[in-house]
Amino acid sequence: MNIMDRLSRLIRANVNDLIERAEDPERTLDQLLRDMHSNITTARAQVASMIAQEKELEADYDETSRLAIEWRQKAQRAVDAGKDELAREALRRRRDSEENSSVYERQLNLQRQTVERLKSQLRQLESKYQTTLSQRDSLIARQRRAQATHQVSATLSSFSPMDPTSELDQMERRIRSTESRVEALNEMSDDSIDAQFSELDGDDDIEAELQALKSDSTAPVAALNADASESSGDGEARNASPGGSGGSL
What is the rounded distance in angstroms from the CA atom of residue 60 to the CA atom of residue 72? Predict the structure, then answer.
């Protein structure tokens, strides 16, 4: 591959695409910059060589053009001197010089076009090299941010709470189930305690009714005992009086 092909390939290279496809963008970009710098150095040397060839062709063209003019003048002098053979030789040499001059002119025009094309490509490559060099850190930082964002997004999507098959969702379901069972046990415990207190309240009512019944059942017996005591006391009093029946005996 010659220098022109390398220049064209590097000029057409899309730096952003190269970085995106690279496994190590930083190393790829640094290698690209080294390739650009190396090719710029080679291109400058080749352009300088082509310019030198252009100058040689230009000198040859100028020389043959000058000789054609001189031989034309010599031919005229020979004619003026009446030396026709010498004039003919001068005219033949003038013709050869003009033909050589035409050849050098065509080569010089082609060389100039080649030099201008190489100069243009070299300027483009130098411009792209400077742009890439100035944007190196920015391009690498952008690529790293893009990779980090992609990695974080992929990680978050793999642990998405909306995924019913994810481990986090299953764990949350187990926790909710445990919490529900605890609440149910607490509720049952509260109901049991309330029931015990209700039973105590029921026992108090029964006990009060029992005491009331006991009170009602002992009241008539006490009244009978009291009446009996009063009757016994009256009879003993009558028996003890002087006018009683026992005293008459």
Answer: 18
